[in-house]
Design brief:
With 136 residues, the protein is of the alpha+beta class. The chain has a single domain, classed as P-loop containing nucleotide triphosphate hydrolases (Rossmann fold, 3-Layer(aba) Sandwich). It has five helices and five strands, in the order ααβββαβαβα.
């Protein structure tokens, strides 16, 4: 997501968008219409996005909803299962960093069977801690 969306006062852009500016931005032309906007301002319908981009959008929407909820309500766990499959290493690392920041205010559980995600998570320094449990 681009910084111009995240930097507006009162913006509801999720933390992930604030950490990784200028990758993509999303807009709604009409209620219920969600479009991606490429750096060249070309709009892309969600159904025409790659699986990885749709996963990033889905995660950003979930994070934005949770951040808004946490401002008013009790902490609730954030649970994802292989949400990082379509992410490259850089996006996976940034997402894991965002999730470790979120873990300072609520419980975060990330399930994966991808060894690379575990390797990247092991390198994180997090105030809330990163605990890895291998299930065999």
């Amino acid at each position: 997501m681009r910084g111009d969306t995240a930097d507006r006062p009162g913006s509801q852009a999720p933390e992930a968008s604030r950490r990784q500016p200028r990758k993509a931005r999303f807009t709604a032309k009409a209620p219920g219409d969600l479009l991606g906007v490429r750096p060249n301002d070309l709009e892309v319908a969600v159904d025409l996005m790659s699986d990885g981009t749709r996963d990033q959008l889905y995660l950003a929407l979930r994070l934005a909803t949770l951040e808004q909820y946490l401002q008013k309500g009790e902490p609730m766990p954030f649970i994802v299962d292989d949400i990082l499959i379509g992410f490259d290493d850089n996006r996976t690392k940034v997402c894991l960093e965002v999730l470790t920041e979120l873990a300072a205010s609520t419980q975060v559980l990330v399930f994966t069977h991808h060894r690379r995600v575990v390797e990247l998570a092991e390198k994180l320094e997090a105030q809330a801690g990163v605990f890895i449990h291998d299930l065999h």
